[in-house]
Every structure is written in structure tokens, then in C-alpha cells.
Amino acid sequence: MRKPLYLLVSAISLMIISCFSLAGIISCIFKGKSQIKAEHHSELDLDKHWHLDEVFILMGILIYVASLGSSSFVEEEQYIWHFLTSTLYLIFLMKTVQSMLKETNSTVVHRSEANMFRRNSSSYLASYKLTPGQQDGCKLYTVLIVLVAGRILRAWYQGGINWVHFPDISKILTQSDSSIVKSLQSISVLAVVVLYSVSLMLLRTRRILIIGLWLSHLSCGLLVMLHIWKSQVDTSTPINHSTTSIAQIFYVIASISVTCTFLLSPWIFPTHSKEAEPTSSSGSNPEKAHGLNHSVFLTGVTYTMFWCLLQLLLQQPINAIPVLLILLQIISSVIYFSLEKSLHRQWVQVVAMQFLGMTGHFGLGNTNSLASIDVAGAFIGISSYSTVLSGVLMFIITYGSPLLLYLGMVVHMSVKDSTDISTPQKWSSILNRMIALPCLLALLINSIALTSYTIVLLLMRNHLFVWSVFSPKYLYVCAATVCTYAGVLIIAMTGAYTCAVFSFRTRNYRDKSVDQIDG
After folding, report:
1. Nearest Cα to Cα of residue 384 among 234, 239, 235, 252
2. CA–CA gap between residue 308 and residue 329 (Å, rounded)
3. CA 496, CA 431: separation in Å to the nearest integer?
4. What pTM was computed for the model?
5. What is the Cα–Cα distance from 499 to 431, expressed in whole angstroms?
6. How far apart, in whole angstroms, are the C-alpha atoms of residue 502 and residue 519?
7. Structural domain of residue 155, as residue ranges?
8. Total number of domains in the chain
9. Does any domain span residue 4?
């Protein structure tokens, strides 16, 4: 039965209106930020001219939208995302080298101004003093790590749908001995546990929550290791009750740990500086900013690392190294953007993280065909058949990389400058800086993809490959929309709750201090 024309036109019109509405809101945010920078006479920020990375991102989105009308490009979409991501980070590498050469040729005054800017930055990673040479080395190494990891991901699954017969790393591992694959899984689990331990050590605190999180993450890592080797040994029975129990215990521990981190992390870090006068209205209070940033950092790192362990539990064994590579790309990108605030605008950083998520999506073996969905992993830890639970696990496996990048965006929020939070009005400004662009840009990019492909599907409804190519792709686009809303909800809830708790604690501390002074 054909739908009336006015219904189709109305639906597409609403999608187009949503795209322009989101674009208008983002444009207003940009105008507000530019006015604030003009009022403060900021000289270290980017100028108003368009830069190469910004032009490339806009052109890349247009190329992606245009490619949706070709069945061949839809079937081999991974090549588009690999090209966009690798080229964008090559541009980052080029701009980094150019900035290093400019700093080398600049005067001592300019270098001292840049160092003063870095010292005044209250972001989490910038609080660790690095010499200019060390910062330049970190910037180069982090971009190179992203590029090398991306190249390995591209070689892991070489072909999509048409060129699935191409040799790649995954096929070599599939044909090799199973002990090699299990060893790679174990290495990935150990690497994730070590990275989380290092992240907690950077917080320089030994509070009970931190120690408890470390122990719970370590126990979850051991459970994943036990599940890996148990599934290798006990392969005779179709349903292994011991591995099911291990997975269920993992789900419980991970859920409790993540929930406790979300609820308690804003309460354990200090809200005031011991050296500062709480009732003083002059200047900013860096200790407050560090407490806020540390809380967001702890929450984001916990999200990310527990999600990686979940992926290592659910994904196919040959996908263990790709999961680790995606995690390394996230960490490297966050470090790079925290050290190079003066080279890239915030929206460029957010879009770059989005590109990494889509590259990782195809780097885990996903395609635009329903045949590539991992159904077997959707029953790990389920003792009896459940359509809802299996569907949720299947969604988690399929969109593990995009969701991982949204969780990594919470870590990226912690490197934003938030020095002045001395007044209640500043909290809304900080919340705007933390979550506005990450949420709105994700919604805008998804809205562009959904609207464009809806129009393409309507135009291609009589195409020969409408059921084999275009319709499955539309299901993926709709599922990606759910993924985007879930990721945006996590980012918004984390930022809003953390700012609300710190605002409440700061107000109470200020009121108590005033009462003590009056008394």
C-alpha cells in the first residue's frame, strides 16, 4: 500500500527543518563565543578565517552525503571513513609540524606568552607540567599513534561486501591456531587494565572510591580473562553454564561500578582552594576547576575502560586488538587536543572524534549488510532466551565503537578550560562549554545522514538493489540514530549532574563561610 504523498513530503520537511534548526543553534553558539573572545581581547585563539581542517571536514561531509546515492559506495562505505579520518589527522600532523617550526623561529617573548597560556589553563591534562619540547613530542606521537592504529584497523578487515575475498589480518588469524587469538585477547585485556590503573594514578588521590574502582576493574578484567580461556577449553557443550555465570557476574560488577562512579565522583573532589578566600570576588579559583575536571575525568575514564572490557567480552575473539586500537586512538586524540587548543576549534575536535567512531565501527568488521551482525555474541551471559536482552547485546556489539567514542567524549570534556566558577552564573557557562557542542554536533551530523539517506531511499525505491543494499543501510542509519541519542544522553546527563552537584556544594561552602565570618 502506497503512502500518501503529503505524508512523505511532511516527514522529509520535518527532517530538513530539524537539520537547519540544529545548524542555527550551533551558529548562535559560535557567535556568542566569538563575542566573548572579542570582549576579552583573546589573542591566542584562532582567527576568524577558515582553516584547512575545517574546510576538509565540510567537504568530507558533502562527499559522504553524495556517496549515499551510489550502491557501490554504500556497500564499501568503510573506505570513505578511512579516507576522511586518515586525511584529517594528516592535516593535524601537518599543522602540528608547522606550529613547531613557527615556535622554533619565534622570539622568546612569544614562547613565554604561550607557556603562560598553558600554565593558566586549568584543564586536567594541562595541569601536569611539560616542557615545550616534551609537549611537541607528545603532539607528534599522539597523531602518529592515531594514524598507525587507523592503518592497522583498515588492514584488519580489508574488504566490505563486494571484496570480502581480499586477504586481511582477520582471515589470517581465523586460519591460525586458536591459542594465538586467545593470547591477543589476553594482551588486550591486560592493556586495558593497565591503562585504567595509570589513569587512576594520575588523579593523585587514594580515596576509597578510587581504590574500589581499581579493584572492581581489576576483578572484571580477570573475569574476562577467565571467560576467554574457559570458552577455549569447554567447547564440547553448546551452552556452557560456567562461562554464562562468569559473564553475569561481570555485568553486575561493571554496572554497580559505573553507577557508583556517576553518582559519587562529584562528591569526593574538593570544591574550593585552601589558599583562596571563599568569599573573594576577584579572579578565579583554579582548585574548583580542577575538582570539576577531575570528577568528569574519573567518570569518563570509568565509562570508557569498563566499556572496553565489555566489548572484549562480547566481541568476536579476532576483534580484541581492534578494540584496543580504538581505545588508543581515543586516548591519543584527547591528549593531542588538550595540548593543541590553539590549533583546532572545539567543533573540529568533536567531529574528529566522530570520524574515529565511524572508522572503528567498520574496523570491527561491520558492514551495511545484515549478514555481518554478530548474533552469537548477543547470547553471552544469558541463561535463557530473551529477545530484549539479546537485542540490547546485539546493539552493543554492533555499535561498540561509536558508543565508545561518545564515552570518550566525556573524557574530552574534562580537558576544557573552566577556571572561573566563583559565581552561580558561571556554572551555566561551564555546562554550555562542556556539553553544548559535543551534543549538538553529534545530533546535527546524524540528522544530516538520516535526512539525506531518507531522500535517497525515496528516490531509489524502484532501484534493482533497493532490498539488498539501500534498505539494510537505512536500518543501520536508524540504529545509528538510536546510538547517537544514547551517546548524547550520557554526555548531557554526566555534565549536568556533575555541574549541579558542584554548584550545590560550592553554594553551601560559601554560605557556611559567610556564617562563620559573621559569627
Report:
1. 239
2. 13
3. 7
4. 0.88
5. 7
6. 25
7. 43-518
8. 1
9. no
